[in-house]
What does this fold into?
Amino acid sequence: MAARDPEATKARIFQAAIAEFSRYGIAGARIDRIASEAKANKQLIYAYFGNKAELFTQVLGRCMVDLAAAVPVDPDDIDGWLDRLMDYHAAHPELLRLLFWEGIEYGTAELPDEAARQQHYAEKVAAVADSQARGVISDAIPARDLLFLLIAMANYATVVPQMSRILVGGEDAARDRLRESVKEAARRLVAI
It folds into this structure.
């Protein structure tokens, strides 16, 4: 009989949950499909992660931590940071899908992990404010608003790829042109 490996089981559950939630959202996701895909007992999911909403919160939280580690905010190098951010989301579109589903399902209601998320973003806003204070980038737009605008510009094409295809074009040259346009707009937003 094979030995049980709880960490491997948790990892399989997480991967299956990312796929399930990014495809169906919180309401549409099914724990039985996650269990089947992860080759795990459904009861283990509840034991390890709680209910479906709690599992979603943990999955999204882990994905955001992974993004923060892979692509730290670097307002001193807007072009490089935006390239890394757009590349990350192109390789991991599930994170933006999870955020999109969260927005659909929670709307303006408080999120279960909102305090932690505010802290997560406070650190990013502080990095932008520091660059503004040092005169590296403009302080014409408040740091938190500027960060929101930069992230929105970088992420929108991945969140709604059909709109990007319709408005910008679907070929590689069109996507490259849009990337350069996003970076040019960002440079203008932060220009001293």
Notes: The mean pLDDT is 95.
